[in-house]
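Hey team,

Filing this mostly as a record. A colleague (T.K.) asked me to run one chain through the structure pipeline before their review meeting, and I want the input and output archived in the tracker in case anyone asks later how it was produced. No errors, nothing strange. Just documentation.

Input sequence:
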Amino acid sequence: MPDVVLIRPGCTDFDEQNRIQGVLDLPLNHRGHAQVLGLVAQLQEVEFDVVFTAPGEPARSTALAICEQNGASLKEVDDFRNLDHGLWQGLPVDDVRRKYPKVFKQWQESPETVRLPEGETVAEAVERIRRGLRKCLKRKRTIGIVASEPLATMISCVLRGQRPSFPESCDRKSLRPTIERISLATAALPEADSVPSNGKTATGRAAAASPTNGKPTNGKSLANGAQSPNGTASANGAPPTNAAPSANGRSVTLPKSRKDNGNGKDAGNGNGTSSAAGTGPASTSKRGTHE
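Output structure:
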């Protein structure tokens, strides 16, 4: 019966600026490093068979710190890379809300009905999440998965057999815990349609899944049920995209033009450089740092 410990990494500058990070490779900032130390302390008694990490920062640095303290082996899984937000990456969430109020609301409430320009759809992300989880759960008892928002919440939904959703808010009000422990009855993943769409925990294979109110059910080692590293949904956890049609048979597709970041320049890392193309303030270190 595999146990999955889902870990959200420390914060980056984009988290504190409430910008959409997506797949941009940003290092941990000073606050993020301090948050990682807290995660390491919480997880020091957990006996991991292996810790899997998303390929980019800040997940990689967080996972590396945990493994160095815990003695667990570390493996990078490309299928756990964060959701690609396309041309919205680098934009402040407030700018997106102001410029696209109707689409932004729909993006929060029904992200599967919205497709952002040059971004990844929810269906595509869920497919690779399931592929990655199937490989990770084979012959394992306790595994760690380090992933940034919104992908971490999507992984949680897949493990619980819930309809894919995203952090409760992108305005720093998320109640998602930093650490979630999810116990599965078997290594087989539950189907999303096995539970009602209200997001309640599956009663079958994911019977022992921990709640999402910030209180993990992993006992002593994870007893504090800490919130997300910055106490909120990461900026990179801003609501994502999807290609599935809405209930009326139409999907929402945003204009394909590159929007500015509020200062008349291309959206990016806050200094006018374009990050929509993936050129934000990236970390070149393999180990990186945790925000």
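Quick notes for T.K.: The beta strands are 3-7, 50-53, 74-76, 114-115, 142-146, 179-183, 208-209, 252-253. The helical segments are 13-17, 30-43, 59-70, 93-99, 101-109, 122-136, 151-160.
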